Amino acid sequence: MEWDALLLSLVGFYSGYKCYGYTEGSDSLKFLGLSIATFVFAMTQLSVVVDGWLDSFGLTLYSGMAVEWGHIISLAFILSALAVFIRQSKPVFAQFPLVYAALPLFIVLSYVLVANTYALKDWLLSIYQAGAILVALLMYSVYTYREQRYIYILGGIILFLITFVMYWYIPGIRELSDWLWKTFLALSLLMTLYGYEYARKKGSKNKENVQL
């Protein structure tokens, strides 16, 4: 049994369910993108669990391909959700057209061109992941500096950054100790989700908007 994949699958489905519950009002597009991303991610991890079970019967589900494409689709929706956030954080007169927020979805098409090139597709994946993490880190560093209620969201993003470094830059973690980075990834998701709920609760008391 792939227990680490099962853990990520359960955390992913829970996070997707919670994000979908926040798809209301001006936050609908942001959280719709995040819920799709987490549901897709959860499904890829579930495919790993099922593949491990089928392997005992001499069958396969080709979960490696599902995980690869699931990751790139999840990243596309996360980047799109971040683009919506950036748009909404600006004054109305400075907002770019909403359709531009869908541009990150085209990275799925660009990935088709390098899908058979191992080194290049890993390079692109790391760039997409780093871009999403750094954008979120910069935004929530500013928001946390202004208001402490965003501190847990920032903590979750820092955990994402640690997971990113562990996966790509610490030898042996990715291949030999994958349970370690997967545990950190699950903690990152839960911490960020808790951080939003905390900020939302604090904001509702003060009748303020929460910036995701």
Structural commentary:
The protein is mainly alpha-helical. It has two domains: 1-113, no CATH class; 115-203. 76% of the residues lie in helices and 0% in strands. It contains eight helices and no strands. The radius of gyration is 18 Å and the shape is globular. The model has no long low-confidence stretch (mean pLDDT 84).
Overall 3D geometry? globular
Q: Nearest-angstrom radius of gyration?
A: 18 Å
Order of helices and strands: HHHHHHHH
Main sheet attributes: strand count, strand direction, barrel closure:
none
Helix content percent band: over 70%
Unreliable segments (pLDDT under 50, ≥5 consecutive)?
Answer: none
- Total individual domains: 2
Structural class comes to mainly alpha
- Alpha plus pi helix count: 8
Strand content: under 5%
User: How widely separated are the two ends?
Assistant: 35 Å
How many beta strands in the DSSP annotation?
A: 0
Task: For the structure shown, list the relevant keywords.
single chain; 0% strand; mainly alpha
Secondary structure: elements and pairs:
Blueprint: H1 3-21, H2 28-55, H3 63-89, H4 107-112, H5 118-146, H6 151-169, H7 173-176, H8 178-206
Task: Sum this structure up briefly.
This protein has 212 residues and is mostly helical.
